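Box 3.1 A note on notation
Throughout this textbook, protein chains are presented in two layers. The first layer is the amino acid sequence; the second is a token string describing backbone geometry. Keep the layers aligned when reading.
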Amino acid sequence: GTVMKAALVLSALAALGADAYTAPRTAALRRSGLSRVAMKDYPKPNVENTDNYRASTALTEKLKSLAGKGEKKKVAIVGGGLAGLSCAKYLVDAGHEPTVYEARDVLGGKVSAWQDEDGDWIETGLHIFFGAYPNMMNLLAELDVHDRLQWKVHKMIFAMQQLPGEFTTFDFIPGIPAPFNFGLAILSNQKMLTLWEKLQTAPPLLPMLIEGQDFIDAQDELSVTDFMRKYGMPERINEEVFIAMAKALDFIDPDKLSMTVVLTAMNRFLNEDNGLQMAFLDGNQPDRLCAPLKEYIEARGGKVLTESPLKEFDVDEAGNIKALVMRSGDRVVADEYVSAMPVDVVKRVLPEQWSTMPYFKQLDNLEGIPVINLHMWFDRKLKGVDHLCFSRSPLLSVYADMSITCKEYYDPERSMLELVFAPCSPIAGSDVNWIAKSDEEIIDATMGELARLFPTEIAADPTWPATMQQGPEGQARLRKFAVVKTPRSVYAAIPGRNKYRPSQESPIPNFTMAGCFTSQKFLGSMEGAVLSGKLAAEVVACKAAGEPTQGVKAIQESVIAEAKKAAPKQPVGIRGSDAVAFGGGSSFSKKVEAELKEFDPEQLVKMG
């Protein structure tokens, strides 16, 4: 079936030709009609009719069926991001008693948000929900909060680099199944690639459709750029599509990103009719996403505690956990322990006895990628789209006008752009270490980019030197901004890392790991975090019920050899009290910089 599907896609692409099919152009995207875009939500697409969704439902049912089998376990979960909350949710379903210990005063981890002195919400990141997020979609159904998503029209929107102020789209035609809807969306766009370039894109992707996950996993040693060159894909595909995709998927340039990441995403989108349809949450993440999880967990006997930072794991000689020692001095004793901390934080608290174990030694090969999230409030409405926009700018990844896309942030008079500034450090492909730059330098550089994207709208404003080339037409001025830096966000998916991602099950009998860096097929994302928590809950619940688990993932020979030679290391501990100490994002002050300098000094090395 798959081979037939792939052959059909190719013949359809060849038969269609460059102009044989032209999608209806959206009037809203014509420059003249862009200024007054109204919010328009679309019905929830059918996200349930996919193999991945059915697998997720089956895992939920399995966990519920384990309730009452074996002993009820007290489980201590360190970390109240999506991985920790998901783990607790599925443990209460399986009849156990979890307690989540979150170090910060807010839940959510990488999806946390807080209010500034004006009452405006500041978010760690711009978070988009895709139809191809089966575990997240399942979770929202189980919490009965699907109505909190605002689904947007099924298309991808790109800013035109050569035509400032204009956008172009990949339009997905309703009723046409995957992968044909994807092929047609690309073919019908006349602005980005020539027909010949489009046809050259297809053959290298055929093995992915035919061989599936095995082929995808085998490409992890290649960067996106390496893969393109190996298969003779035209350089312009990189410029037109892959740079935007890479920066949206992992805040990183294509010559630094593993091709496995792009193929994983494309495989979902090519196999699921509504995989690429996007939704925004209708308000801030703590209230609209984390609160229902907390309520669900606590209604079923679990607990979710904030302002409860871990100091260290107290372990016996064999390395088994005896207790968690909290910063407050309290000792937490449980039957099972789960880490749902980001990988960089886990590495700081590994007990000496664990430091030479191959399972934990793998973590040396994983680290978080820096990213910056910007909020920019303007004094009037910019021409916008009610959607996510791929900026295709060298400094920015994706952005959205939240005053149009999100109910809670809706403002008919003034725009609030939320933008992802990436790549922002050398590991991600930038020549400049933007984490070490001041907020004003970052905003000035962004204003320069926005002046290019909105040439007739951004005003020449002496506060922002980068805008001073603007003509008299431009009137929009920045009235307020917030810069949120996350020095260590999702793990850096640079080539060759996948093999080091640890299983949720560990060699320590009473310790399990969750977090989107652990081994699961949805990479560093909200979906990956939710799935990792669910898989960690499965390990704990199966052990308690005396059922078989998936086991500990095979570890690379090179890691085993390194672990043999390694000298035991004392944990450095988690220093500092700001969000960045716990792997979160923060608006930097002198105090935050001083804390960061203590435990992650390379982040503040000035470059460029």
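Residues 6-35 have pLDDT under 50 and may be disordered. The longest strand covers residues 478-486.
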